[in-house]
Amino acid sequence: MSKNTKRSPEEKMEIVLEGLQNDNISETCRKHGIYESQFYQWKKRLIGSASKVFRNKKKKDPEKEKLKDEVDKLKQTLVEQTCELQILKKKRQIGLHGEIKNDWLAADEKRKLMDIVEESTLPVKTTCEILELNSWRYYDWRKRYEADGMEGLKNHKSTPAACPHSLLEEEKQAIVDYALKHPDQRHRKLAKKMMDDDIVYVSASSAYRVLKEAGLIPDQEYHKQKKADGKIEVDQPNKMWHTDISYIPVKNTHAYLICVLDGYSRKIIHGELSQTMTADDMQRVLSRAMYKAGIFDLDPVSRPVLVSDNGTQLVAKSFTEFLEEWEIRHIRTAVKHPETNGKIEVFHKTIKYENVYRKETYQSFYEAREDIEDFIDYYNSERLHQGVDYVTPDQKYNGKADEIIDERKKKHQSAIDRRKRLNRKRKSTAA
Fold first, then answer.
1. Residue closest to 286 by CA, chosen among 243, 238, 340
2. What are the pLDDT digits (tens) for 245-276?
């Protein structure tokens, strides 16, 4: 039999006993084809296992064993809770409280947290959970500390040292100069106006940063309010009109602004200042709006739907009959839901806060009417409207909006490409 042949435990035991009985180990090993070292190894294992046979086995008491396990578990729990209290105490001592998983920590705070983790007898993951710290942050800090010491624990901004499409100095100056010439325009409208006027081609956020840096945007607290915009949307002009009445302060008399607004373009089809606000006034304003938009010549199915609130003038029998005569569908807003007619509400707020309230009280009705007519012309033809992608209501109404928006995008991209080229050129020259 080969020396490498595998033998069963019984065969090994018989060979060892035979060798001990013959008192000639070498002859026994040759007989069975094994190494002497194998014989002695088997002998050692046999003697070691034999001692177990003579040991007195005590019968275990299940109740005592269960009680012992419970005591051990309580001891372990007590140790863990003690360690947890010590960890939290150390955390408070360095001025940290609560969850710090995403907190921006100073280098010395990181080093102190690392000491707490390393001094703890609990596993790293458990200690980090008690500290409410991501364990991967600890390992990252330790790696950086081993490489660069305390310098490696310092926070560094992730922004690149140089941005190839950062604004040029001449562009920044052009933005500031244009803003000073148009102090009534905010950064979003300024960005679009500068593109249209071929001054500079930047995004609204870039314009904001430049103006903020120049101190042209005051610090103030903004309170987010619910947007008062109509929930009914249309995809072409003269499909849905909105109408409403708003009071205009005029000295020694009453004045009411009655407007008809196109829901698609936000264009004021017709607006009129009146000294009364009756159903007849509503019919007159709507008739003039229909004449201006050429609605009288359209088929009934092509005429706009009229959205309004439930004012007495708008639910009057005479006004209802007028709408029925011209086959105009009338949608009334639900009670306490003015947002359905929000587009015209927003216009009335705009004309008051951008025009009426900025001036002294009108001295006469005729002065007010002339000024409001001028603002409506400006609103329709010059003022960029946020609700229609910063084009004018006239441009949106006449179908020119998409062309203007595409042209702005091309100008902006061209400016970015030019900026990259110049920044890279200047950087290479400086190097």
1. 243
2. 999 999 999 999 999 999 999 999 999 999 99
How far out from the chain centre does Cα 158 lie?
Answer: 19
| Side chain identity at residue 411, one-letter code | K
Phi, psi of 409 (to 5 degrees): -60, -40
Strand order in the sheet with 268-274: 268-274, 256-262, 240-247, 305-308, 330-332
Distance, CA of 317 to CA of 279 (rounded, Å)? 9
Tokens of 280: 């007849």
Give the whole-angstrom CA distance, residue 257 versus residue 371: 12
Say if strands 330-332 and 256-262 run parallel, antiparallel, or are unpaired: unpaired
Strands 268-274 and 256-262, how do they pair?
A: antiparallel
- Token pair 């088997």 is found at 42
Closest of 136, 122, 40 to residue 83, by C-alpha: 122
CA 272, CA 283: separation in Å to the nearest integer?
Answer: 12
Distance CA 79, CA 96 (A): 24
Residues 94 and 114 sit within 8 Å (Cβ to Cβ): no
Entry field: residues in the chain: 431
| CB neighbour list of residue 28: distance below 8 Å, 6 or more residues apart | 15, 18, 19, 22, 39
pTM: 0.57
Helix (H) or strand (E) holding 30: helix 25-32
Instruction: Tally DSSP H helices, then E strands, for the chain.
Output: 17, 5
Beta-bridge partner residues of 247: 256
Query: What's residue 104's pLDDT?
Result: 82
Inter-residue contact 361 to 249 (CB < 8 Å): yes
Specify the DSSP element, H or E, that contains 305.
Answer: strand 305-308
